[in-house]
Every structure is written in structure tokens, then in C-alpha cells.
Write a structure and sequence with these properties.
Blueprint lengths: L1 H28 L6 H9 L13 H14 L12 H12 L9 E5 L20 H5 L17 H5 L5 E3 L6 E3 L8 H5 L5 E5 L6 E4 L7 H7 L9 H5 L5 E4 L2 E4 L9 H5 L5 E4 L27 E4 L9 E7 L2 E7 L9 H4 L1
Helix pairs in contact: 2-3, 2-4
């Protein structure tokens, strides 16, 4: 009996030893080497796991940066919007690369179809989801490009950077925005865009995405872009283009001169964080002085002399407002008188 127990223990121990040896060789064969810099980069990231970098989490982004640094020697196209330039410089230091500073971005709402500007024509009652309502109807104001106001963008924001305004029915973005892009993806109407924050948070953009012609667009919203092209004509920096009856301002070329804002007939172009404009002084009207009747002018004399046998006639002729004295002398041909000849 004792021998059986011993034999069983030896057999099981031998099987365990053999399995361990096999697993050891298999582990070495299929071992995946991980660069320790991946952990360093991951620790430097904000661990938001928002997906704003284009990867499913900070770990995947760290792996992509290390791989790009090894294979390409740069991190072009890789950026953590939440961490910004500070995190970018730290990652570059870990990988031994110089990272160029990038302009910070912020989400911008390109729709101004509020309850006042685009009064409701219908009332929607159903699922409170923009993606669901987008598949059913154009919108309460009639514009099929406008914000539906059901707050999908608010639900996906992890930074409390966007909320719905009850007065206008439109989303409002605050300074907490990290430009992760989650709201951009969630909006079914593509009215949210990531644009440069601008110097001192100053921004100019067309707050409309309506691609209809002027009359239908204006009918549904009083501040819609009608594609008139006035903004494009006054822009000296090729920052504005008109496509499908809709103006777009390229923030890379825009110099914030605000000329386009002045000429927009529908106020579709918004200027953010600018000082109020000073009212333009009216130019004084120049009125020609009235003619003084007390000043006598010298008469213009037009003398036309025509010879006459016996008299001179002086005629008064008014040219314009000045008296003209005309002296006319008429010469008469002599009349043949047969009696006198005889």
C-alpha cells in the first residue's frame, strides 16, 4: 500500500516536472519583448483613456509612440490632446526626440439656430437621443443641418466641458475642454469642430453648416449662411472659401482681422472674446456754399459785329445766370434800282 502511494507521488511529480520544462521552452519561444520605455511613457500620460489620440487608451498610445520613435525617428501624427504641449515635451524627453509645440484646440459649436433664430415649426416627442432623432426628421426649426439639442455631446464628455443652454437649446463649451474629440464623433450633424483656441482665446468662425441655397436657409434660420461671398471678397489672406453655398474659415490662414464679420449680412460669422467695436464716427457732410446775390458779377459780353447801313443793334442774351450783351450789326445787300441807273 505504501509503495503505491510513493509511486503515485513520483509519477505526478515527474509529470509536473515535464510540463514545467515544456512550458518553459514554449514561453521562451513565444516571448514578447516589451520596451521598458512603454511603461515610462504611459506613466507620463494623463491616463484619461478618452481616445482623443486615436488609440483605445493610453497604453496603446504609449506603444505607438515608442514604435514610431524606433522606426521613424519622429512622432508626427501622434498627439495627446488632453496632456497638451507639456506632456508632449515630457514624452519626447523620454524617447530622446524634439517635439514641436502645437496650438491648443477647443471644440466649437458651428450652429446658431437657437429658439429665437430658428423658431420651432414642429414638436418632437420620442427618444432623447440625437442619433435617433437625426434618422427621423430634419429638426424642430426646419433646418436639416441644425443642432437637435438632445445632448449626445454632453453625455460623452468625460471632462464636464459642455452643457446644454436651456434658453437657446444649443450646447455651450467651456474652458475645461481638452479637445479629445468625443463630442465631435458623437454629433450626428457634424456641427462640432475642433479649432485653434487662438491668441488670448480669440476665435472667428462661421457658425453655420447649412448647405442649402440662400432663400431656403434664410427661411428656416434668420442667421444662416447664404453663401453670398462677401466675406470671401474682403479676405486678403485666402482664409475663406465658399462650397455648396456655405462659407468656411480656415483657422490656419485667418489673421483675425474681422473684416468678414463686418460684411456678413446675416451675422453668421462669430467673433469670440474680442473687445466691442468702437462706433464709427460719421463723416461730416460737405455742403456747397449758397450763391450770394449781393455779389455782382461782371457781365460777359459777346460781341458779334455785323455791318449795317444805318444802325447797330445791341441784344441782351442770358447765358446761364450771367447777362450777355450781344452787339449785332446786320449788313444788307444793296437793292438794284433800275430807275436810279436810268
Amino acid at each position: 500500500m505504501d509503495n503505491i502511494i510513493v509511486i503515485a507521488i513520483i509519477a505526478l511529480g515527474g509529470l509536473g516536472l515535464i510540463a514545467a520544462i515544456i512550458l518553459y521552452f514554449i514561453a521562451n519561444k513565444f516571448k514578447v519583448f516589451e520596451d521598458p520605455k512603454i511603461d515610462e511613457v504611459e506613466d507620463a500620460l494623463p491616463s484619461a483613456n478618452c481616445g482623443g489620440c486615436g488609440f483605445p487608451g493610453c497604453r496603446a498610445y504609449a506603444e505607438a509612440t515608442v514604435k514610431s520613435a524606433k522606426e521613424n525617428g519622429h512622432l508626427e501624427g501622434l498627439n495627446c490632446p488632453v496632456g497638451g504641449n507639456e506632456v508632449g515635451q515630457l514624452v519626447g524627453k523620454i524617447l530622446g526626440l524634439e517635439i514641436e509645440a502645437k496650438d491648443p484646440l477647443i471644440a466649437v459649436i458651428r450652429c446658431n439656430g437657437s429658439h429665437t433664430n430658428s423658431p420651432a415649426k414642429v414638436k418632437f416627442e420620442g427618444a432623447t437621443s440625437c442619433s435617433f432623432a437625426h434618422a427621423l426628421y430634419g429638426g424642430e426649426g426646419g433646418c436639416q443641418f441644425s443642432c437637435l439639442g438632445l445632448g449626445d455631446c454632453v453625455d460623452v464628455c468625460d471632462f464636464d466641458a459642455i452643457h446644454m443652454d436651456s434658453e437657446t437649446g444649443l450646447p455651450v463649451v467651456n474652458d475645461k475642454c481638452t479637445a479629445c474629440g468625443a463630442c465631435v464623433v458623437a454629433c450626428p450633424r457634424d456641427i462640432i469642430e475642433l479649432r485653434k483656441r487662438g491668441p488670448k482665446e480669440k476665435r472667428i468662425f462661421v457658425s453655420c453648416v447649412n448647405k442649402e441655397k440662400g432663400a431656403p436657409a434664410k427661411k428656416n434660420c434668420s442667421v444662416a449662411c447664404i453663401g453670398c461671398g462677401k466675406c470671401e471678397k474682403v479676405c486678403n489672406f485666402d482664409a475663406i472659401t465658399i462650397t455648396s453655398f456655405l462659407a468656411y474659415i480656415n483657422f490656419d490662414n485667418c489673421t483675425l482681422c474681422r473684416k468678414c464679420v463686418e460684411v456678413c449680412p446675416t451675422n453668421a460669422i462669430h467673433e469670440i472674446n474680442f473687445r466691442p467695436r468702437k462706433p464709427k464716427a460719421e463723416k461730416p457732410k460737405i455742403v456747397a456754399p449758397a450763391a450770394d446775390s449781393s455779389i455782382t458779377r461782371k457781365p460777359v459780353v459777346d460781341k458779334t459785329v455785323v455791318k449795317s447801313d444805318s444802325k447797330e443793334t445791341i441784344a441782351d442774351n442770358k447765358i446761364g445766370k450771367e447777362p450777355v450783351i450781344t452787339k449785332t450789326v446786320v449788313t444788307k445787300k444793296p437793292i438794284d434800282n433800275k430807275d436810279n441807273k436810268e
